[in-house]
Structures are given as structure tokens and as C-alpha cells.
Design a protein that fits this description.
rod-shaped, alpha+beta, two-stranded antiparallel ribbon, 225 residues
Length: 225
Amino acid sequence: MKSRSFLNLGAAALVAAFYVSPAAAVDGYVTQRDNNQQPVRTRYGECVHDGQWQSGMHYADCEPAAAVPVAAPAPAPKPEPVVEAPAPAPQPIPQNVPFRLATETFFDFDKAVLTPEGQAVLDDVAKRLGVSQYDSLSIVGHTDRIGTPQYNQKLSERRANAMRDYLVAKGVAPEKISTSGLGEANPTAQCTNLRGARLIACLQPDRFAEMTVAGTVQVSVAPSN
């Protein structure tokens, strides 16, 4: 009987201990009655709420942290349109361009005054020079062999200067022009046993001027496909 009474007393004490030491509570949560007051969890690790729990309450790590909204990434800037660089301008071609003008259409025999025909030819020369790039223009006058060498030298120089003055009046830069005369040097006509008007007519090829443009001229290049 004593042993049974002892067992009954022990069971009663155990039951009494269960009710005497219930789990403590934190507002909204059931916690263990100890110094740390750890939350009571279910078999799935979730904290046990009591009747005072409301949405938004937090205790320890019972509730997941509120999700922080992540701002949508800013749209990538649109790429700038690719602008193709213009094709480089064609480079000027350095060259010297000599050309010969027959002065029988420029000057009357033994004269240094330009004829209308000579002026028309120089008008065309001035237009060509106006659209060209060049560094210098030289004019060299020539005469036939009629007259003394000294006279012909001066005549050739006057003819070259007359051509220069006309071109300058048409807009050609005077600082780019140089003039000289070679008189009756460098003859080309073969006139023997002739006199008077026939000799003058035969010597026409020796009355000429040489013009040399030195520098560069522009060239046009067709665009490539």
C-alpha cells in the first residue's frame, strides 16, 4: 500500500508541476518560461501565436522580414545613331601645266597691244585659273627675227606684260604672275628666200607666248558604291 500511495503522490506532483509552470507569453507569441523566453514553435518551426497576435507583429525571428521593394532598373539609354564620316575630299595633284599661245592672234605684227581675238583667249584663261588652285603663272613672250635682237627682246617683254595686265584686270592675282621675254630666240619657222609680207606671214609660228601654271589643280573623284 505504501508503494502505491507513493506512486499516486508522484503522479500528482508531476501533474501539479505541469500546471504550475505553463509557458510564458509575449504579446502575440507563446514563449518558454525561462530567462531567454524563446518562442514556442510547432513541429514545422513556426512560432505559436496567442490570441493577442495581430498582423504586423514581430518577435525574434518568428516573422519573415518584410520584402523590400526593388526598384525596376532604369531603361538602358538608346544607342546614338552611327553617323558615317564624310568621305575625305580628293587631294590636289601637284603638277606644272605649260601651254603655248600663238601670238599672231594676240598682237599685230610689231605691236604689243592685244587684239580682240587675243582678249577672248585670255578671258577663257582667266576663267580656268579662277576655278583652279595654283601657285604661280609665268608668261614668256617671243618674237620673230625681223628687227634687231635688242628691239625684239623689248618687244617680247612688252607683249608678256600686256598679257599679264589683262589677266590681272580679269581677277587673276598679280602676285602669282611673272613675265619675261626671249626676243627672237628659239625660232621654229623655216623661211628662206622670202621678203616683205611673205616673210612676215611665214614667221608667224615664231610669234608666240608660253604660259606655265605651277602648283596644284583639283581633281574630282566619283563616289564609290
